[in-house]
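Sequence in, structure out.
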Amino acid sequence: MLGSGKSKNKSSLAPQALLNLIGSGTIITGNIQCSGDIRVDGTVKGHMEVGQKLVVGETGSVLGDVSAANVSVSGTVKGNIVTEETTVLHGTSKVHGDIHTRQIIIEQGGVFNGYCKMGAEIKSSTPKRRENNAPESES
C-alpha cells in the first residue's frame, strides 16, 4: 500500500517505463520510434529505434534495421541490429543481418547469418555489410 508509510523505499514509488506491445497477428508497416521498451509478437516492416529494450517474441518478426539499448530475439529479424549494451539470440531466433553490440549471447539453436562487431564504440555507428562475404582488404 502506498499510503501506509511502512515502506520508505522510493524506488517502489518511481514511475515504471511503459511497455509497448505489438501483438501476434498485427502487421505494422512503417518505422517505429520508442523511448521505452517494446515487445514485438507480430510483424514490423520498417526500422525500429528503441530507447530501452526491444524483445522480439517467438511469433515476432522485424523486417528492417533495429537500434536499441538491449535486444532480445526469439523470433526473426531481417536487418541490421545495433545495441549499446547486450544482444541475446535465443534458441528459436533467426537473424539475417549484421550486428554491432557491446556483448552478444547466442543460445544453442539460434541462427545468425551476418557480420558481427563487438566493442564499446557503438553509438551512431552502423555495421557495414561486406559484399559477397569477401574479407575486408587491408591496405
